[in-house]
Amino acid sequence: MGVLYTEQLQIGYDERVIVQNLNLSVPEGKITALIGANGSGKSTILKTMARMLKASQGTVYLDGRSIQKQSTKEVAKQLAILPQNPTAPEGLTVSELVAYGRFPYQRGFGTLTREDKDIIRWSIDVTGMGEFADRPVDQLSGGQRQRAWIALALAQQTDILFLDEPTTFLDMAHQLEVLKLLEKLNTEQKRTILMVVHDLNHASRYAHHIVAIKKGTVISEGSPGEVMTPEVLREVFGIEADIVSDPRTGAPLCLPFELAVAR
């Protein structure tokens, strides 16, 4: 088992069950991508594993203990999450935003220590946001905003980072900018990253481990080569696709060409 895993997890809203009997382990020190059609339960799984949602049954284990039995500050020191489309208060600067990442470590009136300030500065620098430190977040481009939020997550100094579709609504250049940053964080700092990914070729290129979800159930998981197959894509997405090898990386590329015929 990895440092983060679920046992017989069931998640639902009101009387509707979204996820049932989920047993999922996140490989430590790797990038894992959750893929699946819209409404398949990917974001619901991510939020529940991060304790943003409560499971109706089963358990999420973080460092060998139930995540529900740990305090908010305990969890925030181990796991940081970047939700989809986060928004900052108008006029809040990048430095002020990133400073929120030090909340789990603050006591009393929450005064920032020298160590806090050093970590905030490091988080801003490592995400390439140094020149924008004093600029309001709402005045940044999409890619810059996303990097500012990642800097906030990094300031928590956690070994695990969750991201819910971090490249949504970004143009191609900004998508690559964010994905390259995540790759760097994993390679150089061994961060364990779990992200919901919409683009299958991004998942294949940047993730070591892929989990394909359909109606809250794991259909396939493993390396990109094991999951990115015509059979899995047909079942999970209802498409017919050719799989070719990326000439640069050797990773499988998905080339969809028509809808699968229902059988």
Automatic annotation (TrEMBL):
InterPro entries for this protein: AAA+_ATPase (IPR003593), ABC_transporter-like_ATP-bd (IPR003439), ABC_transporter-like_CS (IPR017871), P-loop_NTPase (IPR027417), Siderophore_ABC-ATPase (IPR051535)
Keywords: ATP-binding, Cell membrane, Ion transport, Iron, Iron transport, Membrane, Nucleotide-binding, Transport
Highest taxon of the lineage: Bacteria
Entry GO CC: plasma membrane
GO molecular function: ATP binding; ATP hydrolysis activity
Membrane association type: Peripheral membrane protein
A Gene Ontology BP annotation from the UniProt entry: iron ion transport
Main subcellular location: membrane
Domain ABC transporter: 4-240
Region forming the signal peptide: none
Location in or out of the cell: Cell membrane
Protein name: Fe(3+)-dicitrate ABC transporter ATP-binding protein
